[in-house]
Design a protein that fits this description.
One of its GO terms (molecular function) is metal ion binding. This is adenosine deaminase. It holds the Pfam family A_deaminase. The chain has 371 residues and is α/β, with parallel strands linked by helices. It has one domain: TIM Barrel. The strands form 4 sheets. The chain has a 4-stranded parallel β-sheet, with helices on both faces. Helix 7 links the parallel strand 5 and strand 6. Helix 1 packs across helix 2, helix 5 runs parallel beside helix 6 and helix 14 packs antiparallel against helix 15. The mean pLDDT is 95.
Length: 371
């Protein structure tokens, strides 16, 4: 089913866009408006592949739909190139928050890697402060437009680089000033979380929350390392945990599955999976199961009791929104409003917030789904 990311699909007569949502896996450098890319590039004299916003949007979508995470990641060379100044970072962060609010998101976490934004003289601290300024401007603009939203930063280190301990210390330094958690991202295969054990040891000593990209471009060993070496409280994507499940039989509508030790641990400990359906198709993360959304193991994981959440990953590259992802899943698996509410409750419970703040989110979601 083709759904415009700006459309307002209905489910059981209810606008999906109007429902309160929680966004946990959303990259800042994957969320730019095409028009903003062009304007920021012009301001610094940088060439981009297309000068028309619609055509540039088409270019990102086409280049991202390769079935390879490595090729998918190359599109970020364009977006990060226009995010090298304080003004550029501030604007992108402000628009990020405004776009989330317009999509019905009431709490979001934005992940980005400060080390990738230093080419024009910014320090790591300058970059984080610029993004935080933009977030706060976006929250104020959203409030003025009648939307209540809060957004926290997930300070991210690049897993193929060697700055993770430095970035971990940066994240902790900004605790209470916008940073709510830490992540590692980038090329997953060949760069396990164990390469960054010193950073994760430090974060654990500071009781600072961690999510780790794992189970996307690499399989069970990557997930295992994220949990053991990274002490991950959530799994970024984590879709390939389904490789540790074996469907042994099916009787009518019932499916009987055996669990491997890793899958059982993730399920029983309710470790949240930050699943991103459209992105998982684009990068080939679900290639073992098929090439259509209906092949995604999302529903299997949901029915087996895993803590599944729904995310966009990169709204520009996937030409998507959280509303669109939910609508696509509802169409593929015949979900109703109760299912969509369950995904939001899972995400609220997994947010890197205090218990009191998570309970407030859960209450807001319940109110929004029963109005």
């Amino acid at each position: 089913m083709a759904i415009d990311p700006h459309a307002d699909p209905k489910l059981q007569g209810v606008s999906i866009r109007s429902l309160p949502k929680v966004s946990l896996h959303d990259h800042l450098d994957g969320a730019l408006r095409p028009a903003t890319v062009i304007e920021l590039a012009d301001a610094i004299g940088l060439d981009v592949p297309e000068q028309n916003a619609a055509e540039l949007g088409d270019w990102f979508a086409e280049k991202s739909d390769s079935g390879s995470l490595v090729e998918y990641l190359k599109t970020f060379d364009v977006t990060t190139s226009v995010m090298q100044t304080a003004d550029g970072l501030r604007r992108v962060a402000k628009e990020f928050v405004e776009d989330l609010a317009a999509d019905g998101v009431i709490y979001g976490e934005v992940r980005w890697a400060p080390e990738q934004h230093l080419a024009r003289g910014l320090s790591l601290e300058d970059a984080v402060e610029a993004v935080q300024d933009g977030i706060e401007e976006g929250e104020d603009a959203a409030e003025a437009a009648g939307h209540d939203i809060r957004v926290g930063q997930l300070i991210t280190a690049m897993r193929h680089a060697d700055r993770s301990l430095e970035i971990a210390k940066l994240a902790v330094a900004f605790r209470g000033r916008g940073a709510v958690g830490f992540d590692i991202a980038g090329a997953e295969d060949g760069f396990p979380a164990s390469n960054h054990r010193a950073a994760f040891d430090y974060l654990a000593s500071e009781f600072f929350p961690v999510t780790v990209h794992a189970g996307e471009a690499a399989g069970l060993d990557s997930i295992r390392s994220a949990l053991i070496d990274g002490r991950a409280l959530r799994l970024g994507h984590g879709v390939r945990i389904a490789e540790d499940l074996e469907v042994v039989s099916q009787k009518g509508e019932e499916t009987f599955v055996t669990f491997g030790d890793l899958a059982r641990w993730v399920r029983d400990r309710e470790i949240p999976l930050e699943l991103s359906p459209s992105s998982n198709l684009q990068t080939g993360a679900i290639a073992a199961w098929g090439s259509e959304l209906a092949d995604h193991p999302f529903d299997l994981l949901y029915q087996l009791g895993f803590s599944v959440t729904v995310n966009v990953d990169n709204r520009l590259m996937s030409r998507t929104s959280l509303t669109r992802e939910l609508a696509l899943l509802a169409d593929a698996f015949e979900y109703g409003l109760d299912d969509l509410e369950a995904f939001q409750l899972n995400a609220a419970a997994a947010a890197f917030l205090s218990v009191e703040e998570r309970e407030e989110l859960i209450e807001l979601i319940g109110d929004g789904f029963t109005r």
